[in-house]
Design brief:
The complex is a heterodimer of chains A (about 110) and B (about 110).
Chain A lengths: L2 E3 L4 E5 L4 E3 L2 E3 L6 E6 L6 E5 L10 E2 L10 E3 L8 E8 L9 E3 L3 E6 L1
Parallel strand pairs in A: 2-11
Antiparallel strand pairs in A: 1-4, 3-8, 5-6, 5-9, 7-8, 9-10, 9-11
Chain B lengths: L3 E3 L3 E4 L5 E7 L5 E8 L3 E10 L2 E4 L6 E7 L2 E6 L8 E8 L8 E2 L3 E5 L1
Parallel strand pairs in B: 2-11
Antiparallel strand pairs in B: 1-3, 3-8, 4-5, 4-9, 5-6, 7-8, 9-10, 9-11
The chains are: A mainly beta (about 110), B mainly beta (about 110).
């Protein structure tokens, strides 16, 4: 069975400090991984996906198949990065395309 | 711009009541999803639909049912609400296929007394 684990429920950093939100997964096939974010009083939205290899709002995430990880990183955190972050795995295959398995979420707080 | 709307932002119901949560999307998406969001548990998939009248159980379908009579509308039904169904409910939609972005509604916070 697919599983996504985010080991930190809460993460606090100061503005300008590097930040890393951890995500580990278990999946027998080729993983398709995403990070979703929910800012205060906003709806959940896509932040980035590994297939695009893009940097959004200064965040990047590298898929490490050896360690089965997809950690989200930003070199210099900003106060507006404070939000709930979810790592998610796409359960590819058959009619289950597009179905996501989410992690437990990490609340990031960036202090001034 | 994709828009996913949910019928209520807040709902208070009594134990045993039948509860309907409605979700509508305006982008002709094939896939629609219902999740519940609980602190420390993340998002858990309740039900999923990949076409009109088609549905598939998610990870926690017990106590819930769904209906998709039209492509744009996906309803979540709590046949007999219980206090452990107090939660935030999120609807999402996406195009069919792999690696498609899911677009979420604003959520319905349900309190069952």
């Amino acid at each position: 069975a697919q599983r996504v684990t985010q080991p930190e429920k809460l993460l606090s950093v100061f503005k300008g400090a590097p930040v890393e939100l951890k995500c580990n997964y278990s999946y027998s096939g080729s993983p398709e991984l995403f990070w979703y974010v929910q800012y205060s009083r906003q709806r959940l939205q896509l932040l980035l996906r590994h297939i695009s290899r893009e940097s959004i709002k200064g965040f990047t995430a590298d898929l490490n198949k050896g360690e089965t990880s997809f950690h989200l990183k930003k070199p210099f955190a900003q106060e507006e990065d404070s939000a709930m972050y979810y790592c998610a795995l796409d359960n590819a295959g058959g009619t289950s395309y597009g179905k996501l398995t989410f992690g437990q979420g990490t609340i990031l707080t960036v202090h001034p | 711009d994709v828009k996913v709307t949910q019928s209520s932002r807040y709902l208070v119901k009594r134990t045993g009541e039948k509860v309907f949560l409605e979700c509508v999307q305006d982008m002709d998406h094939e896939n629609m999803f219902w999740y519940r969001q609980d602190p420390g548990l993340g998002l858990r998939l309740i039900y999923f639909s990949y076409d009109v009248k088609m549905k598939e159980k998610g990870d926690i379908p017990e106590g819930y049912s769904v209906s998709r009579e039209k492509k744009e509308r996906f309803s979540l039904i709590l046949e007999s609400a219980s206090t452990n169904q107090t939660s935030m409910y999120l609807c999402a939609s996406s195009r069919g296929g792999q690696q498609e972005t899911q677009y979420f509604g604003p959520g319905t916070r349900l309190l069952v007394l």
